[in-house]
Design goal:
Elements (H helix, E strand, L loop, with lengths): L2 E5 L5 H15 L4 H8 L1 H6 L4 E7 L2 E12 L2 E9 L8 H15 L4 E6 L4 H9 L2 E3 L14 E5 L14
Parallel strand pairs: 4-5
Antiparallel strand pairs: 1-2, 2-3, 3-4, 5-7, 6-7
Length: 166
C-alpha cells in the first residue's frame, strides 16, 4: 500500500472532523472555533479560498490538514491530524509538504501556524519543514490552547523571523 495525498471531497468530510477531534480530545478539548470549522469545512475553509488535504493509505483515510486563506497572500496551516494507529509512517510530513506546495502554487506571502508547546513531535516536524518559532503568540489568536506561533521561512532557517503583520 502506498500513501497518497488527496484533496477534499464531500465524501471525506466526516474524516476531517474525526481525525482532528481525535488529537484535540486527547491533548486538549474541542474549542468552539474548532467545532465550527470541523463541522462545515466547505464554508469555513474552502469557500474563503483555502484547501484541505487527506492522507490515504489503502482504503483508510489516516490524516488531514488544511490551508486556511486568512487574507490576501496570508495562509494558516491548521487542522492537522494523523490517526494515532498510523503515526510514524510519514503521513504528517507528506500532508505538511502538500500544504506548503499549495501555498507556493498560490504565490502566498505569509504562511503561519499556531500550536502548543506540549506537541513536541509536531513542532520538530514544522521546524524541519522551515517554520521558525516566534517570540510571542500570535496577536488575535483564535485558540486558547495556542502558546506557539511559527512562520514559514525556509530561506531564513535558524535566524529569527518576525511577523510583518504583528
Amino acid at each position: 500500500m502506498s500513501l497518497q495525498i488527496v484533496p477534499f471531497e464531500p465524501a471525506l468530510r466526516a474524516h476531517f472532523y474525526r481525525l482532528n477531534a481525535q488529537w484535540l480530545e486527547r491533548h486538549f478539548r474541542i474549542e468552539d472555533i474548532d467545532r465550527l470549522v470541523l463541522s462545515d469545512p466547505e464554508t469555513h475553509v474552502l469557500q474563503p479560498g483555502g484547501a484541505i488535504f487527506f492522507a490515504r493509505l489503502g482504503g483508510h483515510i489516516i490524516g488531514t490538514c488544511a490551508l486556511l486563506h486568512e487574507s490576501p497572500g496570508v495562509y494558516e496551516l491548521t487542522k492537522m491530524g494523523v490517526d494515532e494507529t498510523f503515526r510514524g509512517q510519514g503521513a504528517g510530513r507528506r500532508l505538511l509538504d502538500a500544504a506548503i506546495a499549495e501555498f507556493h502554487r498560490r504565490d502566498g506571502q505569509l504562511l503561519f501556524l499556531e500550536s502548543s508547546s506540549t506537541l513536541t513531535i509536531a513542532l520538530r516536524m514544522y521546524e524541519q519543514a522551515g517554520f521558525v518559532m516566534q517570540p510571542a503568540i500570535r496577536v488575535g489568536s483564535h485558540y486558547q490552547r495556542a502558546d506557539v506561533y511559527m512562520i514559514y521561512a525556509p530561506m531564513k532557517h535558524g535566524a529569527p523571523v518576525v511577523d510583518p503583520v504583528a
